[in-house]
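Our preliminary data section would be incomplete without showing what the modeling component actually yields. Below, a chain of 152 amino acids is followed by its predicted structure, encoded as tokens that our downstream tools consume directly.
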Amino acid sequence: MDWHMLLFGAVLAIIPDLDFMLIWVFHLSNGWHRSFTHSILMGFIVTALLIGLLGTARIREAVAYGAAYLSHGILDFLTAKHGGGVELFWPFVHERFKLGLISFSELMHGITLSEMFKASLIELTIFAPMLLALLLVREFVLSGLRSSQGEA
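Predicted structure:
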């Protein structure tokens, strides 16, 4: 995987927040934020479009990119404490959902530096072991492939 793929995935992961542009450009209410762009259906639509663009030979890549897009709405659902939450099931249900596990996604609600640091430590505690495990598995698999190719 090269850095272009990682960058594209990162961009896709923040695209749902471009709904702020709809609010600014069309002078819409803040109720548009975390609506259709954050929904599970939109994640599937983006994935389908990517499969169409990349082709079925690159379906795993397209699904990974779609998961990056979908992760935004899911993470906002997990972290939203203030406000209405996320319209995860748009257009079928217009109710907004939130768990409010950690409120680090809502900086405009006066989060302090210590709260931000605490949220970062929690995130690091959750994701660093997963990243380390994935890197170790990757290295184990790659070293196994290298040794089997050397034997052949």
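Residues 112-152 form one domain. Residues 87 and 93 are 8 Å apart (CA to CA). Preliminary results of this kind motivate Aim 1 of the renewal.
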